Amino acid sequence: MNAVCPGPVETPVLGDFEESMGKENLDALAAFLGRHADPADIAGPVLFLAGPESAWINGHALVADGGINGAVLTGMIPPPEI
């Protein structure tokens, strides 16, 4: 089993994330990255993990967040306050 862990994506559920994470936090992430992801940005990683190219990848959580996780881990941006 594999998983894709996206960052904020421009879908109807984004409003729920704004409520739980804070609109200010999500706006700051969009400003840092230039935008939120769109569904096509996440479709590629999903298709990869569902396809034959990933046949030997198992038990992996693929982060597809435009670099948010890396920026937080390296201290480039502070972690969002939830």
TrEMBL record:
One of its GO terms (molecular function) is oxidoreductase activity. Keywords: Oxidoreductase. InterPro entries: NAD(P)-bd_dom_sf (IPR036291), SDR_DHRS6-like (IPR051122), SDR_fam (IPR002347). It comes from the Bacteria. Belongs to the short-chain dehydrogenases/reductases (SDR) family. This is NAD(P)-dependent dehydrogenase (Short-subunit alcohol dehydrogenase family). It comes from Pseudonocardia alni (Amycolata alni).
